[in-house]
Amino acid sequence: MSWHLDEEEFEAVQLMGAEERYRYFIEQLVESQEAWGLWSNEGGWWHTRDGEGNAALALWPHSRYADAFAKSMETDPTPKLIPLATLLDTFVPRLAKDGMTLAVFPVADGEGHAITPEEFREQLQSQLVDDGDEFEYDDY
Predict the structure, then answer these.
(1) How far apart are CA 80 and CA 43, in angstroms?
(2) Number of Cβ atoms within 10 Å of the Cβ of 120
(3) Cα(105)–Cα(131) distance, rounded to whole angstroms?
(4) pLDDT tens digit string along 5-36?
(5) 140 is a domain residue
(6) CB 68 within 8 A of CB 14
(7) pLDDT tens digits along 87-114
(8) What is the spatial distance between Cα 15 and Cα 45, in angstroms, rounded to a whole number?
(9) Is residue 28 assigned to a domain?
(10) Are strands 55-59 and 47-49 parallel, antiparallel or unpaired?
(11) What predicted TM-score, i.e. pTM, was given to this entire model?
(12) Which of 38, 87, 103, 138 has the CA that lies 20 to 30 A from 44?
């Protein structure tokens, strides 16, 4: 279940740069154990392109951010929850296998933080260890 996101925080975070939004995303992901993507009944998980033109799965820390992005781009997908375990055990290995990247927390006026699935896993694992989290996942 999503955490409470007040309007002031919602607005302030969207004004941050991509790196700051990435750090915010990681902090919220560790705390809430969930991420959000955009789902379309017609095409599955919505993706964008990173700066090098690679397909990239877009992720957000809260459904409101994902919804705001979808509305700004006039796309039809809707926010869909991705539990942390599913993100690490299913999505990250599949994205790596398919040569895709992650676009973490894009906003209407700015791109997301582009990162490879492998780098994302390493950085997230480091944050989980630093926070003393006992979360376990399969290593592919």
Answers:
(1) 14
(2) 23
(3) 22
(4) 999 999 999 999 999 999 999 999 999 999 99
(5) no
(6) yes
(7) 999 999 999 999 999 999 999 988 999 9
(8) 25
(9) yes
(10) antiparallel
(11) 0.89
(12) 138
Which residue has 């895709």 as its token pair?
A: 100
Torsion, CA 52, CA 58, CA 59, CA 60, rounded to 10:
100
Closest CA to 58 of 111, 104, 25: 104
- Which CATH number characterizes residue 70's domain? 3.40.1350.90
pLDDT value at 81 more than 50:
yes
What's 43's DSSP letter? T
* Predicted pLDDT at 90: 97
Q: Is residue 139 part of a domain?
A: no
Domain-embedded: residue 12? yes
Position 135 scores a pLDDT of 44
Instruction: Tell me the residue range of the domain where 44 lies.
Output: 7-130
- In degrees and rounded to multiples of 5, residue 80 shows phi and psi of -140, 135
Helix axes 63-72, 7-14, angle to 10 degrees: 60
DSSP state of 33: S
The residues, any chain, with a CB within 8 Å of residue 49's CB and separated by 6 or more, are 55, 56
**Residue 78 pLDDT:** 95
Q: Which residue has the tokens 């919804």?
A: 67
User: How many separate domains does the chain show?
Assistant: 1
